[in-house]
Every structure is written in C-alpha cells, then in structure tokens.
Inverse folding.
C-alpha cells in the first residue's frame, strides 16, 4: 500500500497534496528550462539590449542599482552582489527606503534593474517615476507583460509563466528561482563583455579559500635580500656561505648578463664532495638549465611543478633574470598547499 501524502489546507477549505521535495525541485527546474528557451528565443534580443544598456551606463562610469520588494528584494541583493564581484559595480536599494531619501543613492549615470513578479509592486512606484523623470535606464524583470513596470521599462526581460512550487501557489519559489538565474546570466554576460579575468576576480576576492586558490607566485615569493644568488665565477667557499645564510637549501647562479644560468642545491654539494670542492667555481658544480616559473603564475601551478619534479624550491624569473624564489613552505603558509 502506498503511503498517503500529507495535505495542506488552502483558503476556502480546499485540501491539496504537498509535493515531494524532489517534485518541488523539478517544478523549479522546469521553470528554468522554460527561461533558457526564452533566452535562446524571444528574449534573446531584449537580453542583449539589457547588457548593452548596462555597459553604456555613464559610458562605463555608472553603477547598476538592483531593487525589489519582499522575496524579490532578497534576490535583488544577491544579483547586486554577483554583479559587483564579477566586475560590474552594483548596489541594492530598498524600494521603501528609496521613498524616504534613498533615491539619492541612484545617480544620473546609473541604470536600474527592478524585480517584481506581478509588475505591480506599489513600493516600486517612486523608483520607477524617478528613473522616468531623470532618464535613468530601467530594466524590468517580471512575468506580467501588461504591468505598469513592464510598460515603463526601457528593456523588458519577461519571465515565462510558470506555477509557483509552493502547494498553495502563493509563496514566491519558482518565480524567484527564475529571477536568480536571469541575474546570474546577466552577470556572466557582462563579465565576458568586459574581459574580466581570473586576476581581476582575485583582486575582488582576496579572502577565503577562493582568494587563496587565485594567489600568484609574485604574492608570496621571496625577493630582494632574501633571494639566494651567487655569480658563476664565485668560488664554492663563498657559495656555501650564501646557501647557509639564506636557509633555503639552494642558491641561484647568475652569469655576466644577470640571467639565471643554474642552481646549486644541497644535493649538488653532496655529489661533488671532494677535497677541491671549496676552491671550485660555482659554474663547475651547478645544475644547468634549472626549472623556473613566471611571477604571474598561480601558486597552484608552482606546487604542481614542484611535486612533479620532487623539489622544494623554484626560482622565479622574468626575462631570464631571477626576481624571486618560492619554497613549498611558503605555499603551505599561504594556505594553498
């Protein structure tokens, strides 16, 4: 015997079965599929116009103001955060607070994205009127093409008609999921148009695991007086003093042109141990053509190279000249390894 589903009571005494969690998620997934179809079809041109409008805001100097009320407002906050973190300056303005002075947060070079499932959210009226008065671009995200918000907007991003996943058909669920997906699509389209790179992303995400993952070699390498270097004609008695003082177990050997010609490690010293070692030139002991890495390489790449070669240090070169050295312990301290 199948197990009976729990029931909820809707206004008016009508009982409706509560959908299973998986069914609820499938309802929202179906709505996202419908949104994707619109983005590939009837909404494609409007979406491109919205991207262009945002890029043109103040000739690139403006921001994106995202607004919405209730659950749409929570989604608007997230969209503003995603835009800002991917190279498009954005902020959230609460519609109610806007009517009491926060309209001053919206500048003439800005653009506004307003979210409202019905398109008739009364709290948005002052923001909409403000954008029309001062010719501030307005992008509407709604499912109601005949709404006041849709009619006033410069660009309408019309959500497909889809039932809310809530069994009462009332709580914003499917509609806010579609708004969130559309906001992510805008953010990534703008990221691509701006040529926003991983390096740019790191500058805006210096904290947490993401920031550590995007650390560059130049961020943690040892340079200047910490760099163990000797000349190719230096005698080994002097070279060993450098290895000992810098405490990295190696020294880089440079030629007359200042470029890295080789390295001498503790292992090289053991292999060349003989009565004449201290009087020998560094060039006779060094390992030629050492592995190096670029300053702008990610620390993760340096770790991979050191693991592959079973070494603990890598010299960092720019144009062949040594500018730093990275040790596996530096990677451990940075939290990447």
């Amino acid at each position: 015997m199948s197990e009976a589903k729990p029931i909820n009571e809707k206004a008016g005494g009508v009982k409706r079965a509560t959908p299973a969690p998986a069914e609820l998620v499938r309802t929202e997934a179906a709505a996202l599929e419908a949104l994707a179809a619109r983005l590939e079809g009837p909404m494609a041109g409007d979406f491109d116009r919205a991207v262009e409008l945002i890029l043109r805001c103040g000739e690139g100097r403006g921001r994106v103001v995202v607004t919405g009320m209730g659950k749409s407002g929570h989604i608007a906050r997230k969209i503003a955060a995603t835009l800002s973190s991917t190279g498009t300056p954005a902020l959230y303005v609460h519609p109610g607070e806007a009517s009491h002075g926060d309209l001053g947060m919206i500048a003439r070079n800005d653009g506004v994205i307003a979210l409202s499932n019905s398109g008739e959210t009364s709290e948005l009226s002052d923001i909409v009127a403000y954008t029309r008065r001062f010719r501030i671009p307005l992008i509407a995200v709604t499912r109601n093409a005949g709404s006041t918000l849709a009619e006033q907007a410069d660009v309408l991003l019309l959500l497909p008609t889809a039932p809310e996943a809530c069994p009462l058909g009332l709580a914003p669920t499917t509609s806010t999921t579609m708004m969130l997906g559309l906001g992510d699509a805008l953010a990534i389209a703008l990221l691509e148009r701006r040529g926003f790179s991983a390096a740019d992303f790191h500058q805006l995400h210096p904290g947490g695991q993401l920031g550590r993952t995007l650390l560059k070699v130049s961020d943690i390498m040892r340079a200047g007086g910490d760099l163990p270097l000797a000349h190719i004609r230096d005698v080994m008695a002097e070279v060993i003093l450098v290895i000992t003082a810098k405490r990295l177990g190696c020294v880089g050997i440079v030629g007359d042109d200042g470029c890295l010609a080789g390295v001498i490690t503790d292992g090289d010293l053991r292999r060349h141990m003989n009565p004449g070692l201290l009087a020998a030139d560094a060039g006779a002991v060094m390992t030629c053509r050492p592995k190096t890495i670029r300053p702008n390489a990610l620390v993760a790449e340096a770790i991979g190279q050191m693991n592959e070669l079973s070494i603990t240090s890598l010299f960092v070169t720019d144009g062949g000249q040594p500018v730093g050295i990275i040790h596996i312990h530096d990677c451990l301290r940075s939290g990447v390894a």
Notes: Residues 174-194 form the longest helix (21 residues). The mean pLDDT is 90. The chain has two domains: 14-196, 217-334.
